[in-house]
Amino acid sequence: EKDNFAILLDRYKEKFSQFPKEKGWMGQDVYMYQGFWYTSENAFSIETMMAVQESFQAHSTDIYVITQPKCGTTWIKALVFAIVNRTKYKNIKPSDHPLNISNPHKCVPFLETEIITKGPANPPRLLASHIPYNALPKSIIDSSCRIVYLCRNPKDVLVSWFHFANKLKDKSRTPMTIGEMLDVYAKGFMPYGPYWDHVIEYYKASSEDPTKVLFLTYEDMKIDTASKVKRLAEFLGHPFTEEEVANGVVEEIVRLCSFENLKEVNKNGDLLTGIPNASFFREGKVGGWSNYLTKEMSQILDDITTEKFQGLDISF
Ligand code: A3P
Questions:
Q1: Which of the residues 59, 97, 105, 130 is marked catalytic?
Q2: Ligand 1, residues 130, 156, 256, 259: which to mutate, most atoms within 8 A of Cβ?
Q3: pLDDT level of residue 41 (50, 70, 90 thresholds)
Q4: 256 CB-near residues (< 8 Å, 6+ apart)
């Protein structure tokens, strides 16, 4: 027997079957809705997005971590969780900190999966999403909740997608070469694609109201993580005290959330969705794309980036 959520999703299925459709990521059908492409039949699908859009109710104290997949979602989730909860976990043994025991995806769940369980109870609710700005539930846009947005050099995002997809080895999906992946990525036929349009929406929202949307890049975070952690804490209304800074609390958070530490913590086990914890930690570097993309491939993406980001102060 179908539960209420399955019935709700069926209602959206009838709607989206009329939308423009293309063969996209991993041979799956992607559907166009409000300027973006979505897959179906999983948590990060068009029907879930439509259900979230229509039914999710934001609270003014909520904090949303928003990215496109493979832009560093796991990292920024960990950092936001560690910053906001630092007082709560101040006196526990470091080995008992949730980020030293479980996956950041458990600490900061996705809206796309939490609509089923109604989300965490106590404020501030920390939630994540991949939904484009203009498709967010109206209550997120209208309430005074805060949004942290992280993006990344699209060439590294593409290479990260490529490895992630191959690691999952879902038999319903056709494995793709990097060239085939580039082709669908450039056309935007990816979950939440086109990549560039997603970034532009959040960039503009942040320019219009920097107190509502904090726009960050993976590359800037890598250059000076500590200063970005301080910036994040201020933005989230949890600034570090002088005493905390003097006591090295910022550096402790940087280390706790570092690629090396989280990779070690997450080397075993799976998420509830069956995705191995380890699959979110591959290389964690800037510029690794040059080992996978030919000059021609790189040029294709550079040309799109130059054209789409013309006049905007976005660089990687
Ligand atoms: P690579 O595949 O380039 O290594 P997402 O979390 O959005 O799925 O993105 C995954 C990417 O972020 C992967 O990139 C992964 O290695 C990297 N990553 C995960 N945890 C990280 C961390 N703590 N610091 C830096 N990068 C991290």
A1: 130
A2: 259
A3: confident
A4: 78, 82, 94, 97, 99, 100
